[in-house]
Design brief:
seven-stranded parallel β-sheet, 8 helices, 249 residues, Rossmann fold
């Protein structure tokens, strides 16, 4: 039985990594999937991979007009939605003295502002009994070297989610936090880690994880499915750490 049959699910940053893996799984589980991403070409490629009638809308989550355009499309095409996963994010790992004002603003505009105004704009269209999933990070609760600004931007969205879980209770809308640890995605390339250096980097990271390895996007997708589906119907306001036990050490 498909766990998300006849549901409409929106995933921001659904064109790569955890977002794309989640979109694929949600589509297989019967959802009408809508994804967002900044680059049309990458968005189109993701839609081909997801299949099953997935649709996409290009734009920057830091831009409130993008959320308004998404809401308009959802209302016109689907009448509303059932699942909203605020997943889009960026990261730059650097010590505080190497973070420029532009770096700071980019983190908070995308990772924090994008989540807040995305939920604010979409919430009126979310059907009673719906689910909101906010992607945070292990870094929000565990101090990691050179993650200061990124960690702060992700800690803020976790605080949003816990408040929304109470604020939206009249509509029985559940709001939960998905907090990944290190995951093997294209983000490693964006961090400037070359293919030659990648095995050593992954080995070093794996040594800090009780599971002995990095996570896979599909593993995060399965956790998101639990939070989105009836399997997690009595789970509300939690921070689900999917990190191979790294938060323990």
């Amino acid at each position: 039985m498909q766990q998300l049959k006849d549901k409409v699910a929106v995933i921001t940053g659904g064109n790569s990594g955890i977002g794309k893996a989640t979109a694929r799984l949600f589509a297989r589980e019967g959802a009408q999937v809508v994804i967002t991403g900044r680059r049309q070409e990458i968005l189109d490629q993701a839609l081909e991979e997801i299949g099953r009638g997935a649709v996409g809308i290009a734009g920057d989550v830091a831009d409130i007009d993008h959320h308004r355009a998404l809401a308009k499309m959802l209302k016109e095409q689907f009448g509303g939605l059932d699942i909203y996963m605020a997943n889009a994010g960026i990261i730059k790992i650097a010590p505080s003295d190497r973070i420029s004002p532009e770096d700071y603003d980019r983190h908070f505009n995308t990772n924090t502002r994008g989540v807040f105004f995305g939920v604010q704009t979409i919430k009126p269209l979310l059907r009673d009994g719906g689910s909101i999933i906010v992607t945070s990070s292990l870094a929000a609760t565990k101090v990691l070297p050179d993650h200061t600004v990124y960690a702060a931007s992700k800690a803020a969205v976790a605080a949003f989610a816990k408040n929304w879980a109470i604020e939206f209770k009249a509509q029985n809308i559940r709001v939960n936090i998905l907090s990944p640890g290190p995951v093997e995605t294209a983000i490693l390339e964006k961090l400037g880690i070359s293919e030659a250096d990648r095995p050593a980097f992954e080995a070093q990271m794996a040594s800090q994880i009780p599971a002995g390895r990095l996570g896979q996007p599909d593993e995060l997708a399965r956790a998101a499915l639990f939070l989105a589906s009836d399997a997690g119907s009595f789970v509300n306001g939690v921070e689900l750490q999917v990190d191979g036990g790294m938060s323990l050490v």
